[in-house]
């Protein structure tokens, strides 16, 4: 190889197409051709991409089952060679084990470069028609019912659009769990992004649950869920209920402060009301 075509030693994080091979950037193709080795999730998938760009760059498996054993050797190679990292589709490190390779490469003092490109989570956001100014990517929710419900409860109050990956067979159950845990929010189910049968189906979580309950779709799926609506202002009755409970374990001032912070009500008003409640109890 001509020395002028050699890449600097280090780690190159290369985003690959999520469907349409035409989405591979010229820069990404150039890096994959010139790298000394490519760390891949599945060599069969990446081999197809390499054939598309006309190269036979050597590959090394790097996935959940091999990462721990392979990582030290890859880090060592980065001292003198260019190592490219790819996933089966999209941007590496998004819902796969690549972050540890980046962390260790930096710790070893190696060059780390990213070659940005397709990402299914971001692409789904652009199709969903939901707020994009603040969003949370949660990867795949747990498959077991109880664990999934707990995970949904953790994110239920976050004021951001939620983005998650899912498989066709699990989609109906996942949508039902989201509807139960989040309420009937607006949402979108996107699949086969950038491919011939790209689809974005929008509606409420309940209508989407009904649609997919008995007809799981094929292809890679991304669910996008709208953020929670504004909570209604707390009422005087809400304040009394919270104060009554708080007074069983706190002083009058502490109870007023806690409820004011929790419900967004005026502390002085709550303090006066707490004194009234105590007096009524005698």
From TrEMBL:
One GO molecular-function entry: methyltransferase activity
Subcellular location: Cytoplasm
Reaction catalyzed: cytidine(1402) in 16S rRNA + S-adenosyl-L-methionine = 2'-O-methylcytidine(1402) in 16S rRNA + S-adenosyl-L-homocysteine + H(+)
EC number(s) per entry: 2.1.1.198
Domain named Tetrapyrrole methylase: residues: 11-208
InterPro entries named in the record: 4pyrrol_Mease, 4pyrrol_Methylase_sf, 4pyrrole_Mease_sub1, 4pyrrole_Mease_sub2, rRNA_ssu_MeTfrase_I, RsmI_HTH, SAM_MeTrfase_RsmI_CS
SUPFAM superfamilies membership: Tetrapyrrole methylase
Residues of the RsmI HTH domain: 234-278
Top class in the EC scheme: transferase
UniProt entry keywords in alphabetical sequence: Cytoplasm, Methyltransferase, rRNA processing, S-adenosyl-L-methionine, Transferase
Any one of the GO BP annotations: methylation
CDD domains the UniProt entry points to: RsmI (cd11648)
NCBIfam families to which the protein is assigned, alphabetical: 16S rRNA (cytidine(1402)-2'-O)-methyltransferase (TIGR00096)
Function: Catalyzes the 2'-O-methylation of the ribose of cytidine 1402 (C1402) in 16S rRNA.
Family: Belongs to the methyltransferase superfamily. RsmI family.
Protein name: Ribosomal RNA small subunit methyltransferase I
Source organism: Sphingomonas albertensis
